[in-house]
Design goal:
globular; alpha/beta; eight-stranded mixed sheet; Rossmann fold; about 280 residues
Length: about 280
């Protein structure tokens, strides 16, 4: 049991990936605080997961700094410490950009990006004092590759990647590790995309059919448990992908080609050389 005597907080844990992570953490010996905004589902999850001595339930909005402090603080109140935080809470408000409302944009940015900030802020105060800890931020390939109809979601998840990288640099000196996981799993969120929409997109790009064949969220849990365990104490600042039995490592954006102007890049010089810059790398 790689998490024996560890204490973790998992946000958005009433269903889907969050619940699967919490369940696996309990199997691996951890005590777990599970959070969600849906109190009925939280209580149902607690009943179904079983060991009430090792589970605490906190209803709360991760994008509220007061709620985030209460969620994270419950770990210390109930179990004496905090070793790991999984920022998993999220929502979808899919719509093409020209039809997207300000509210749909703000809601997704608020829950994903601000929620990750608020809970991390609360957790780091505890972890820095004890000199150790691990944070896993749930991101998405949408934040790296984009996805039609998800400009809000892609922006939030890309923001989480930049946040992860920077936080890993800043917190390493305090013994705190920060990584990101981009999962692919069949959950209530992915099932919210109508099948006919997926099949329509698949006519242009067959890869969309994978959305109809996604494995369950339990496939994600092992990686997250490993990353917050002491077995991964040298791993920080990385992005991992997990879809069923496929495990991948992703890079952050990096410079791939450089050109220099004699003095400065004016419009004429750019027009003359842009095709060279855009040539595929050999």
């Amino acid at each position: 049991m790689v998490l024996e005597n560890k204490v973790a907080v998992v946000t958005g844990a009433a269903r889907g990936i969050g619940r699967a992570i919490a369940e696996e953490m309990l199997k691996q010996g951890a005590s777990v605080v599970i959070n969600d905004v849906d109190e009925a589902e939280l209580n149902k999850t607690m009943e179904e997961l079983g060991d009430k001595d090792k589970i605490a339930v906190v209803k709360g909005d991760v994008s509220s700094i007061d709620d985030a402090k209460r969620i994270v603080g419950t770990a210390v109140e109930e179990f004496g410490t905090l070793d790991a935080l999984v920022n998993n809470a999220g929502i979808l408000r899919d719509r093409t950009f020209v039809k997207m409302s300000e509210e749909e944009w703000d809601d997704v940015i608020r829950v994903h990006l601000r929620g990750t900030f608020c809970c991390s802020k609360a957790a780091v105060e505890i972890m820095r004092e004890k000199g150790s800890g691990a944070i896993v931020n749930i991101t998405s390939t949408a934040g790296m590759k984009g996805n039609v109809g998800q400009s809000n979601y892609a922006a939030a998840k890309a923001g989480i990647l930049g946040f992860t990288r920077t936080l890993s640099m800043e917190l390493q000196k305090y013994g705190i590790r920060v990584n990101a996981v981009a999962p692919g799993a069949k959950t209530r969120m992915t099932l919210s995309i109508p099948e006919e929409v997926i099949r329509k997109k698949a006519r242009e790009d067959p890869r969309y059919l994978k959305l109809l064949q996604l494995p369950g969220p339990e496939y994600v849990a092992g990686l997250v448990c490993f990353l917050v365990s002491d077995r991964a104490k040298e791993i920080t600042g990385l992005i991992f992908g997990i879809v069923g039995n496929e495990l991948s490592l992703w890079t952050f954006p990096h410079q791939v080609k450089v050109m220099y102007a004699p003095e400065k890049w004016d419009v004429q010089l750019l027009e003359k050389n842009m095709s060279r810059l855009l040539e595929p790398l050999k």
